[in-house]
Amino acid sequence: MSAEQRKNLAEQLREASGPQPPASVERLRSGFAAFMGTFPIPSGIRTTPTHLGGRPAVRVEREAEPRPGTLLYFHGGSFVLGSPTTALSITAQLVLRSGISAISVDYRLAPEHPFPAAIEDGVAAYRELLASGTPSSTIAFVGDSAGGGLSVTTSLAARDAGLPLPAAIVAFSPGLDHTRSGSSMSTKDGVDPFFTADGMRRTGELYLGGQNPAQPLLAPAVHADLHGMPPILLQVGTDELLLDDSVRLADRARDAGVDVILDITAGVPHVFPAYVGTLDEAAEALDRAALFLTQKVRPVQPSPSGTIAP
Question: Which residues form the catalytic set?
């Protein structure tokens, strides 16, 4: 474990995100884009603008021969900030390691488009993939932070709409409870080097748009029926305000008979797998996520009768 790396990164994040007056949404977005722009894009990756489900998107592929399958990627940013570009570093790292190409969706953001717009865009993107002939067994939902939550809620919405579910879900530090009722929201306030509870509540209110947070698609860690969900990998750090979002979802998924892996790393910040080259644990976590994906996302094989079967 890289104790010195973790300590240095926490100090850098606290300094960068220290006490600041409330900023406009436009300033928050530009600041987030500038911060995420400091994360390097690995070589060996090709990106192509595209559209999916009526929204702009970016296809991310490795230049070497890809593995079969598709990662439907949802970026982070508290449902208010971000784009496929801000998540490109972590998306590309996962594509390189797994070999599976990704399509990162530029879903609509709050406050202009509050809940459930982002989920609707996720389902629309998934519908188009299915309609194009892509089998659900070759698709995984992946996301970080708010996008990690979206990977879960899009799957719930797809299930409830009668769609076949994806092969797997990978969520990095997901936000899974807009009631903010997890104990880590208080026990980790002041410990988390990236978020404060007050700041998280402010951006959460923009996404809620005055709606009741105690709904399955706003608080799946508390209120969702998780029966029938695909295998889930949750990666989170012990210092996160959102720690208990993952812990509680994992407990409830287990009780619902869902295959779930809760992967907790000590002393690391929010979406720690993004810090490849800074934290040893980042590359290790991405390798575990890539292994999970290659085990769950399976190519379509011809059946003995000559037809195609998953």
Answer: 145, 240, 270
